[in-house]
């Protein structure tokens, strides 16, 4: 039976303090108390419903967190100032000096740089593996391993992680499975498949308007409480706090996510099939030619499709850059990083969002110079979009 997480968002009911259909925005950095004892109790975490200081929590942030937890099917969630502001505290909370992480080799460049270059300063080391090969994942686990880390659909190669299989490994070795679900909100629900912690960059599909950055960590109440602990909580002490105005804005956009994801997926499926029929090397989880098409299909919530991300390989960086510039000139989208916007966004990840990964490692994982990553937009006439893209490719002798 397919899960329908959007229905859980739909069923949430918030009222503003004056009866508004949107909750009031808590535009305060600090909060007053009627007694000194209540302030003390709040510091100790023993005054439910009281607010102390907005780095700890605020009503606006808690409203958004509750909605995102309902979407992912977790007990609760905490929001952060960026996607990296969600990823880094989770790793630092779960790992101590001497601990080890097993991570997918194809992940967002910023995450890769943190695990490869920064975490070793804390004596936390990472082994990068092909996440689609469970035997390779298991072989990389050591007695010091604490975390399995992956993206549901990897950035930028669109490899698909077998969340159920990884969850079984995590349970077998008493590890925490942490899944970045940024590329596939609603399409896949990692927590329902066995993930312990689910992360999103809210900047992308969930917000959908490319006007703010944000992140979220979805998990158990116990784990989120540890992140917020005033003595040793990574979210609390590192200070990557989301602004209340931004939280309120993202909450409003979240309400249309289920509609937007259906259109992103529909358009991406159409273009992927057309590109593949044209003979382009096309990668999209919705294509039967995708190595993990069946894995995605067995995990997905059917209603939301295979997501809005696809890649094509046009053979060289020069051709990729020229094509992207031409498509932007023809108003087919923007030459820009990020994803989830109403317009199609495209970039060459090897020289942008994955540039932190050394060239030899890019080659080993199959990230070629000519690869273009597309975040497909909400075009109402996707056939016209394809025809114009096709013309651009013919002009450049890509087809």
From TrEMBL:
<dbReference type="GO" id="GO:0030170">
    <property type="term" value="F:pyridoxal phosphate binding"/>
</dbReference>
<dbReference type="InterPro" id="IPR000277">
    <property type="entry name" value="Cys/Met-Metab_PyrdxlP-dep_enz"/>
</dbReference>
<dbReference type="InterPro" id="IPR015421">
    <property type="entry name" value="PyrdxlP-dep_Trfase_major"/>
</dbReference>
<keyword id="KW-0032">Aminotransferase</keyword>
<keyword id="KW-0663">Pyridoxal phosphate</keyword>
<dbReference type="InterPro" id="IPR015424">
    <property type="entry name" value="PyrdxlP-dep_Trfase"/>
</dbReference>
<dbReference type="GO" id="GO:0008483">
    <property type="term" value="F:transaminase activity"/>
</dbReference>
<protein>
    <submittedName>
        <fullName>Aminotransferase class I/II-fold pyridoxal phosphate-dependent enzyme</fullName>
    </submittedName>
</protein>
<keyword id="KW-0808">Transferase</keyword>
<dbReference type="GO" id="GO:0005737">
    <property type="term" value="C:cytoplasm"/>
</dbReference>
<dbReference type="GO" id="GO:0016846">
    <property type="term" value="F:carbon-sulfur lyase activity"/>
</dbReference>
<dbReference type="Pfam" id="PF01053">
    <property type="entry name" value="Cys_Met_Meta_PP"/>
</dbReference>
<dbReference type="InterPro" id="IPR015422">
    <property type="entry name" value="PyrdxlP-dep_Trfase_small"/>
</dbReference>
<feature type="modified residue" description="N6-(pyridoxal phosphate)lysine">
    <location>
        <position position="204"/>
    </location>
</feature>
<comment type="similarity">
    <text>Belongs to the trans-sulfuration enzymes family.</text>
</comment>
<dbReference type="GO" id="GO:0019346">
    <property type="term" value="P:transsulfuration"/>
</dbReference>
């Amino acid at each position: 039976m397919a899960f329908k997480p959007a229905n859980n968002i739909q069923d949430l009911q918030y009222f503003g303090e004056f009866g508004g259909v949107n909750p009031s925005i808590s535009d305060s950095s600090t909060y007053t108390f009627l007694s000194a004892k209540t302030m003390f109790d709040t510091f100790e975490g023993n005054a439910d419903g009281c607010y102390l200081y907005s780095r700890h929590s605020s009503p606006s942030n808690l409203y958004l967190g509750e909605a995102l937890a309902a979407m992912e099917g977790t007990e609760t969630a905490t929001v952060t100032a960026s996607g990296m502001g969600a990823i880094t505290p989770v790793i630092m909370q779960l790992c101590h000096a001497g601990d080890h992480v097993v991570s997918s080799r194809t992940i967002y460049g910023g995450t890769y740089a943190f695990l490869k270059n920064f975490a070793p300063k804390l004596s936390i080391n990472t082994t990068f593996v092909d996440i689609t090969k469970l035997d390779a994942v298991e072989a990389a686990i050591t007695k010091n391993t604490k975390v399995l880390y992956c993206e549901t659909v990897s950035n930028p190669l669109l490899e698909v992680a077998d969340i159920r299989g990884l969850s079984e490994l995590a349970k077998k070795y008493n590890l925490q499975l942490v899944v970045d679900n940024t590329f596939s909100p609603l399409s896949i629900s990692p927590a329902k498949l066995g993930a312990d912690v689910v992360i999103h960059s809210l900047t992308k599909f969930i917000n959908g308007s490319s006007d703010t950055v944000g992140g979220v960590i979805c998990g158990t109440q116990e784990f989120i409480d540890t992140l917020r602990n005033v003595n040793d909580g990574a979210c609390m002490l590192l200070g990557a706090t989301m602004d209340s105005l931004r939280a309120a804005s993202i909450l409003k956009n979240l309400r249309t996510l289920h509609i937007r994801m259906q259109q992103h997926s529909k358009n991406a499926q159409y273009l992927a099939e057309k590109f593949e029929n044209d003979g382009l090397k096309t990668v999209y989880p919705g294509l039967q030619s995708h190595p993990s098409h069946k894995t995605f299909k067995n995990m997905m919530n059917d209603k939301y499709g295979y997501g809005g991300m696809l890649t094509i390989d046009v053979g060289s960086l020069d051709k990729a850059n020229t094509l992207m510039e031409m498509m932007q000139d023809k108003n087919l989208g923007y030459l820009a990083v990020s994803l989830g916007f109403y317009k199609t966004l495209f970039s060459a990840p090897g020289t942008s969002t994955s540039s932190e990964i050394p060239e030899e490692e890019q080659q080993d994982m199959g990230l070629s110079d000519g690869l273009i990553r597309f975040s497909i937009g909400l075009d109402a006439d996707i056939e016209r979009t394809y025809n114009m893209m096709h013309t651009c490719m013919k002009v450049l002798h890509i087809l």
